[in-house]
Amino acid sequence: MLKLKEIKTDNWLDVIRLSSGEDQKNKIFEQYIASNCLSIAQASVSNEWVTRAIYNDETLIGFTMYGYSEELKGYEVCRLMVDYHFQGQGFGREALQLIIKVMKIQYECKEILICFLPDNFKARTLYETCGFENTGKTIEDEVIYVLKFV
């Protein structure tokens, strides 16, 4: 069962060692996502972002950053990554659903935004199967999707 845990002194180094691909290790900007190290640094200088380690039982498998985006003027899942060792096992979908649940409770928001590069077909498929829809808008070179709650 997946859970989100705070990033603290006992796990921060393991979190920044996670990578979306073997060939993406130790990069500040991976192919489709900023590194966890950069995200943790970004969150440390802003009160808007929450960072969490994603665990499957007691095994660290991923990372997320979410919160209020001043740029988008809405609540956003800014980062979601599953380490390449654990991809293809349904953890991305389960993690995204957990993050959505947490954000709905924490922020009482009516919608959640998510942005990604248009050629990231795995992300697009994941987001669409979780109910996100294309807004038709872009920011920089990323498309913006939204999940609205009824």
UniProtKB/TrEMBL annotation:
Residues 2-150 form the N-acetyltransferase domain. Gene3D superfamilies: 3.40.630.30. It holds the Pfam family Acetyltransf_1. It comes from the Bacteria. CDD domains: NAT_SF. This is GNAT family N-acetyltransferase. The lineage of its organism: Bacteria, Bacillati, Bacillota, Bacilli, Bacillales.
